[in-house]
UniProtKB/TrEMBL annotation:
Biological or metabolic pathway of the protein: Polyol metabolism; glycerol degradation via glycerol kinase pathway; sn-glycerol 3-phosphate from glycerol: step 1/1
Domain Carbohydrate kinase FGGY C-terminal: from-to ranges: 270-469
Protein name: glycerol kinase
Gene Ontology terms for molecular function: ATP binding; glycerol kinase activity
The UniProt record lists the keyword Zinc-finger: no
Organism: Gossypium lobatum
Amino acid sequence: MSKEQTFIASIDQGTTSTRFFIYDKSARIIGSHHVEFTQFYPEAGWVEHDPMEILESVRSCMTKALDKATADGYNVDSGLKAIGLTNQRETVVVWSKSTGSPLYNAIVWMDVRTSSICRKLEKELPGGRTHFVESCGLPLSTYFSAVKLLWLMENKEEVRAAIKKGDALFGTIDTWLIWNLTGGVNGGIHVTDVSNASRTMLMNLQTLDWDKATLKTLGIPAEILPKIVSNAEVIGKIAEGWPLFGVPIAGCLGDQHAAMVGQACRRGEAKCTYGTGAFILLNTGTAPVKSTHGLLTTLAFKLGPKAQTNYALEGSIAIAGAAVQWLRDSLGIISSASEIESLASKVDCTGGVYFVPAFNGLFAPWWRDDARGICIGITRFTSKSHIARAVLESMCFQVKDVLDSMHKDAGEKGEVKNEKEEFLLRVDGGATVNNLLMQIQADLLGSSVVRPADIETTALGAAYAAGIAVGVWKEEELFASGQNIKTSSIFSPKSSVEWRKKKVDSWCKAVERTFGLADLEM
């Protein structure tokens, strides 16, 4: 006998995998599936995805999650009210409006092929690296979508020709998926949301529309850009030929913004998502806060066309969990990511080893695309356990670097503290199952780390946004005192101030060693 209920689903399209979750009204997962897809590295520093493979991964996840829920007696077909979408940000696709085919592979957010474009613009523009910060909150960097689009326009004849013919459509992964899910060449809807748009370098943070002056300066035609919508509104319905035909897509957020919603981060509260990279966002309320310490001013979320806009300070770390994947796939030190905790736990320190994963440069707060990865302090005493522990520490040091900058930018009034006068960091993402990683993080911060029962808050945030749009949930209820977040574990610091200072000083020395290494001979 089927169980008649109300359901909300979410697509979580990440850097290495796609996942689909089906939730009941209590936000309990009743069906899910995930599929990993291929990473392409055509040259050093280049990272690409096949947009068609991503599309098929979404189809597969939807089908199999639905099958699982149905097999367990849930009548999802009749009870599913809406679908939310969250995605890897900054990654870009340009495709043909008439055929629906991508004109080149998706260029991924961590790709650094645009370094020369960034250097050229820095020299040419009056404001240099910070020329566009006033409008979009972002510095010139290989990280953001606009320079990836410029590279495609400059280097791919297919893209130039399609733009000239009026046949090109541009978007981040959310735009590519929504266009296809709502019909593709047969009336697909060409949209993005305010959070994803805020990461392109092209959206004005005040008007929440494409900045005409920026488009003119960069020579990007507005006609190829999607319409910008809020994070919680009915965008369109799933087209025929897809699973869940007719269900509305009602929520869309970049992955880090979705995690903020999933963690119910109110003004003065911050979260860190540990995935391929690590991303720390602090909700600054309804006004953008300009960073003077290497952070990004960005949009947090806007949960409805008429809802207030929340802004954030963000520190982006390019390599976090990806360093663990590197240990597994490139060095063979571990055979699965989960093994790193037990391996690193065999020693109580790194033995003086420091690892800086500047594989494609360093993001916040350093912003050095000339940096490259190093592992220093190695002796005959060094074992693979020391290296594994140094990799975990590198993730935590980078988060501390960002949070130190965040505290300086936000000030005392910009942060919420508990009764012990502690600033609590909320954490989520796959890597947070690692208890050793979380304890190291608390020890290096000197303050507690809070891990929720459901660590997949990115997917949950997208579901919440969709549910808000169709009336299943109310924004004020979800954010009321964080009551919807069930805390699983709190990791409190066990380290001394003296130990922490010595470790941080050593880390900073290691980071400085990475600068200027991008031109080392192959």
